[in-house]
Design a protein that fits this description.
- The longest helix has 9 residues.
- Among the domains are: about 120 residues, Immunoglobulins (Immunoglobulin-like, Sandwich), CATH 2.60.40.10; about 110 residues, Immunoglobulin-like (Sandwich), CATH 2.60.40; about 90 residues, Immunoglobulins (Immunoglobulin-like).
- It contains 4 helices and 34 strands.
- Strand 33 and strand 34 form a beta hairpin.
- Keywords: Disulfide bond, Glycoprotein, Membrane, Repeat, Signal.
- One of its GO terms (biological process) is heterophilic cell-cell adhesion via plasma membrane cell adhesion molecules.
- This is Immunoglobin superfamily, member 21b.
Length: about 450
């Protein structure tokens, strides 16, 4: 609280929160006008109204701190000596008896939040030695707008799944707000209809919530019409579709010759998913996928809140690639929503650079991935050597850079593969290492 300004006037206003003392020959009523929440940095005026037909003794303002255990004086008006005194800093002094005491707090901060009391004392008409005290109180609520908002992917970086659908979670992190804001998600500008789940105190991405990870996923064959028709033709029998392995408990139908052309091939050869999933995952979701919403908040040391809102659904690379997701925040201290947005994107072929451009046998060669900072979620990079192990004996190396130390001439013609993948897709780039005599060149 930078400084305190006191204004004393002789007007009375309607009282909403009031304390009253009825005397034998007089009365005293005290009230403090209610206040809406105040945004940090704004100026607030506390107004204590009182009416009496007695003689004023004093007016004292308190700020209640430390959970109510301590009352700190912030202003005192002493009618006996016709003086006013601030227990904080400079004030404007007024010598007149008043019906309203006004305390102005400029640029309120978090420490100004809390309970304030206005105490008014008058002389008892029956005895000058007695003072009647009446007080009123009000809670000043200081609110703080969010300081930051960001959207991240849980469990990132994560690989691309070629064999089954996987759940994907976006986490919206909002910090520095008081009170906790309301957080919601949009997809391509449209509000997402979510299924709420129980709050969890576990870490982000925890899969312990049973309902959180259920989804409506339908397994499907390759969506390519030619492959689909060819696959289904293997299952045709007398114009009908037969389910694999469902000829009945008594074996094949009577009259069918074993090994005849109408017999389907063994299951391992005719399930189209087995072939298709090795190259192209195909998942068909319902037209209205389920989005699960989880929300938790935690108090920070400065009195503000950190909120984490999680949106989870079964990812469909065909539908979700290039989708725009935004996290938006409503808060009473904001005039308009605050938002952060991300566009889901599968990685494309990584661009590789080599250093040094020309290396001699025995030098250290670094092959580095360039770019990909705009890809979300963050891709993971895996290096392999086609047809063998890496120079250090490992089968693969993770990271944006592959380091080949003391390159031998035996690596001439070796092919290295860099795989960039995230939950939306995977892509490869190959680099051939060529050795000419005592020099090594990388061809990309």
């Amino acid at each position: 609280m930078a400084f305190l300004i006191i204004a004393l006037s002789c007007r009375a206003t309607p009282s909403l929160k009031k304390s009253c003392s009825v005397l034998m020959c007089g009365y005293l009523t005290v009230s403090i006008e209610p206040l809406p929440p105040v945004v940090i940095g704004d100026t607030v005026t506390l107004k204590c109204n009182f009416q009496t037909d007695g003689n004023l003794r004093e007016i004292v303002w308190f700020q209640v701190i430390e959970g109510g255990g301590v009352k700190q004086k912030i202003f005192t008006y002493d009618a006996m000596y016709n003086t006013s005194y601030s227990h904080m800093e400079d004030i404007h002094r007024h010598d007149d008896l008043v019906y309203q005491s006004t305390v102005r707090l400029p640029e309120v901060q978090m420490e100004d939040d809390g309970l304030y009391e206005c105490h008014v004392g008058i002389y008892d008409k029956s005895s000058r030695d007695k003072v009647i005290l009446v007080s009123g109180s009000i809670i000043l609520t200081v609110i703080v707008p969010p300081k930051s908002i960001s959207v991240v992917a849980a469990n990132s970086p994560a690989p691309f799944s070629r064999y089954e659908a996987q759940n994907f979670t976006l986490v919206c992190i909002v910090t520095g707000a008081k009170p906790a804001p309301m957080v919601y998600f949009k997809r391509d500008g449209e509000l997402i209809d979510v299924v709420p789940t129980a709050q969890s105190s576990s870490t982000v991405g925890d899969q312990s919530q049973a309902g959180l990870w259920s989804s409506r996923i339908l397994s499907s064959r390759d969506l390519d019409d030619t492959k689909l028709h060819k696959s289904l033709s293997l299952l045709e029998e007398e114009g009908k579709l037969a389910r694999l392995g469902q000829d009945g408990p008594e074996g094949p139908e009577p009259g069918r010759e074993p090994g005849s052309k109408s017999d389907p091939k063994p299951t391992s050869e005719v399930i189209p998913e087995t072939v298709v999933s090795r190259e192209f995952p195909r998942w068909v979701q319902s037209s209205d996928p389920l989005y699960y919403f989880q929300h938790r908040q935690q108090a920070a040391g400065d009195g503000t809140m950190e909120v984490r809102a999680m949106l989870t659904w079964s990812l469909n690379p065909q539908l979700d690639n290039e989708a725009l997701f935004s996290c938006e925040v409503n808060h009473p201290a904001l005039s308009m929503p605050m938002q952060a947005e991300v566009t889901l994107a599968a990685p494309r072929g990584p661009k590789l650079t080599m250093s040094p451009g020309k290396a001699k046998v025995g030098d250290t060669v670094r092959i580095t991935v360039q770019g990909f900072h705009e890809v979300f979620p963050e891709p993971m990079f895996t290096w392999t050597k086609v047809g063998g192990r890496l120079l250090d004996g490992r089968e693969e190396h993770d990271g944006r850079e592959l380091i080949l130390e003391r390159v031998p001439a035996e690596l001439n013609g070796s092919m290295f593969r860099c795989t960039a993948q995230n939950p939306l897709g995977s892509t490869d780039t190959h680099t051939r290492l060529i050795v000419f005599g005592g020099s090594v060149y990388v061809r990309i």
